[in-house]
User: Which sequence fits this backbone?
C-alpha cells in the first residue's frame, strides 16, 4: 500500500463521515455541496455561541429611574454617619454599664504603660552603655537592660491577652446588642445615660 492510497482512503473516510467537505463542479457549473444537503461535522461549541446569562440590555437604566442629586447623596451620607455615631455612643454606654469593664480597661492601660516604660528604660540603658562601655558596672547594666526588656514583653503580651480574653467579649456583646436596635432605641439609651449623669 502506497502513501497515495493511504491519503486517498483517509479522504474517502472523512468525506463519508462529513468531516471533509468536497466541492466538485458538475457539468452545469453548480457544486455538489449546493445540490445535496451538507452533513454537519462535529465541532466544539464556543463561549461566544452560548446564551447570555443576563437579559440583553438588563443593566441599562431607563429615563424614569431617579438618579440622586449631589444634595441627596450628601444628606444620605450625613444620615448614615449620624446613625453610626449613635450606635457607637450607645455601645459605649452599654459597655460602661457592664460590671468590671472599667476595671479591666484600667488594668489594660497600666500593663501597656508599664511595658512601654520598661522597653524605653531598656533602650536608654543600652544607649548609656554604648558611651560608657569600659566602666565596671557595664555588665550589671547590661543584665538590667535585658531583664527590663523581658519584663516589657511580658507586660505588653499580657495586655494583649487580657484584651482578647476578657475585654473583647464584652465589646462584642455590646456591639451585638446595638446592632439591630432602631434609631429611637439608640437615642433612648443615650438620653437615659445623660439623665443619669445629671
Assistant:
Amino acid at each position: 500500500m502506497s502513501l497515495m492510497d493511504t491519503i486517498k482512503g483517509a479522504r474517502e473516510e472523512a468525506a463519508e463521515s462529513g468531516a471533509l467537505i468536497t466541492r466538485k463542479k458538475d457539468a452545469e457549473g453548480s457544486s455538489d455541496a449546493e445540490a445535496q444537503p451538507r452533513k454537519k461535522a462535529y465541532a466544539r461549541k464556543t463561549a461566544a455561541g452560548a446564551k447570555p446569562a443576563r437579559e440583553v440590555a438588563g443593566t441599562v437604566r431607563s429615563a424614569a429611574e431617579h438618579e440622586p442629586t449631589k444634595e441627596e447623596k450628601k444628606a444620605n451620607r450625613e444620615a448614615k454617619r449620624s446613625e453610626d455615631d449613635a450606635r457607637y455612643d450607645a455601645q459605649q454606654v452599654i459597655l460602661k454599664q457592664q460590671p468590671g469593664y472599667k476595671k479591666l480597661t484600667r488594668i489594660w492601660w497600666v500593663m501597656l504603660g508599664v511595658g512601654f516604660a520598661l522597653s524605653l528604660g531598656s533602650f536608654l540603658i543600652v544607649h548609656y552603655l554604648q558611651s560608657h562601655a569600659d566602666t565596671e558596672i557595664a555588665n550589671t547594666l547590661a543584665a538590667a537592660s535585658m531583664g527590663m526588656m523581658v519584663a516589657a514583653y511580658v507586660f505588653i503580651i499580657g495586655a494583649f491577652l487580657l484584651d482578647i480574653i476578657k475585654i473583647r467579649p464584652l465589646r462584642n456583646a455590646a456591639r451585638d446588642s446595638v446592632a439591630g436596635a432602631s434609631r429611637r432605641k439608640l437615642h433612648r439609651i443615650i438620653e437615659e445615660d445623660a439623665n443619669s449623669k445629671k
Summary: The CA atoms of residues 63 and 129 lie 77 Å apart. Residues 25-33 have pLDDT under 50 and may be disordered.
